[in-house]
Amino acid sequence: GRSRAMQDARPPHASMLQVARLASGEDIHVSTLASYRARAFPRPKCFCLSCGRMLIPKLGDVRRHHFAHRHDPQAPACWGAQPEGATHLNAKAKLKRLLEDLCAAGGTLRASLPCPRCGRNTNSETPVVVLSPSDQVRVEHWIDPTRNLEPDLQVVSATGSLRLLIEVCVG
């Protein structure tokens, strides 16, 4: 068998789904299911963030822990299970958790932005938005009634006004 060190020696294009959605609507990272390996507790049902189909947590010792789609020969292939799809979904889940933590703390989101004159990156971080505990982070939520604009992540105030939009680009 392969050693545990081999788990993380996979090429970057071999992304695996790390995040799923519970029936309650909450997102769950596969690492939180590690304690279920002894099968002493029933595992919660987990669903794909992209297609909504049931996922199986893979918690073995050879490959790093991940979710896999339940085999269904009738179902079309899910884009979320493809390397770029998994990377994209995992990035959105990580950013969602970071933004929720920043909102809870009432923190300031800062970014290193290019100079508006020359286009070069600056070394300083510019405040983008000050978040508050009443702000809500949404993932893949339509922001217009005509359903033309659906950013990957958005932060909205308690009154529903947009505070921040983020589109994840995997490249």
Walkthrough of the structure:
The structure is a single chain. This protein is α+β, with helices and mostly antiparallel strands. The strands form 3 sheets. Strands 2-1-3-4-5 form a 5-stranded antiparallel sheet. Strand 9 (153-156) and strand 10 form a beta hairpin. It has one helix spanning 83-105; strands at 19-22, 27-29, 46-47, 54-58, 66-69, 108-111, 126-130, 136-139, 153-156, 162-166. It has 1 helix and 10 strands. Helix content is 13%, strand content 23%. It is globular, with a radius of gyration of 19 Å.
Task: Record the SSE blueprint.
Blueprint: E1 19-22, E2 27-29, E3 46-47, E4 54-58, E5 66-69, H1 83-105, E6 108-111, E7 126-130, E8 136-139, E9 153-156, E10 162-166
Antiparallel strand pairs: 1-2, 1-3, 3-4, 4-5, 6-7, 8-9, 9-10
Straight-line distance between termini? 33 Å
Number of strands: 10
How does the overall form come out from the CA principal axes?
globular
**Main beta-sheet annotation:** 5 strands, antiparallel
Q: Extract low-pLDDT stretches.
A: 1-13
- What is the CA-atom radius of gyration, in angstroms? 19 Å
